[in-house]
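Lab notebook, bench 4. Still working through the backlog of constructs that have no structural model yet. Next entry is a single chain of 155 residues. Request: give me the structure tokens for it.
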Amino acid sequence: VSRETFYTQFADKHECFIAAFDRSAEEMISRLKAASEKAAESGGTEEDRISMMLTDVLSLIADEPGIARTYYIEVYAAGQEAIEHRVAIQAAIVDLMLGLLRDVKEEDRFTLQATMGAIGAVITQVVSLGQTEHVVHLQPQLLKFVMTTLRGLDS
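Model written out:
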């Protein structure tokens, strides 16, 4: 892309990054919504629904390492606006999780935020090491972590 073409599309590199990040986030949310709807329609157990959703997001990360790198790593170097976009996306993901869970209430949002944050930290490690193709192998351990955390809500 020529410099002239670039600057007709974006005011600067930061604006370009925000557009790329938003595109990456849209793809992730779109895939998660589809997985959430598929899981909800399956009529399976709560664990089955969460398993389906985890499998889908981990597959996206494995299939699209550029999206993963943008979402999990590069966003933090892009400044406050980019981080605010990521925080909003994380809230949307928590909303999707709340929709999948039958017995979890709105007041449990913090627990889900913390759970998703912990999962994000694990995924960030894998992505930062350039090993996105291996992330799908984390699904059983991540599912166990989520289910253990959710069972703690019942106590």
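Notes after review: The chain is about 75% helix and 0% strand. The first helix runs from residue 3 to 9. Flag for follow-up if needed.
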